[in-house]
Amino acid sequence: MKNKIIFATGNEGKMKEIRLILRDLGREILSMEEAGFKGNIVESGTTFAENAEIKARAVWEQTGGTVLADDSGLVIDYLGGEPGVYSARYLETEPYSVKNRVLIQRLEGAEGEKRAARFVCNIAAVLPDGRVLHTQAAMEGLIAREPAGEGGFGYDPILYLPEYGKTSAELAIDEKNKISHRGKALEMMKEALKAALEGNDEDINRK
Question: Is residue 205 situated within a structural domain?
Answer without folding.
Answer: no
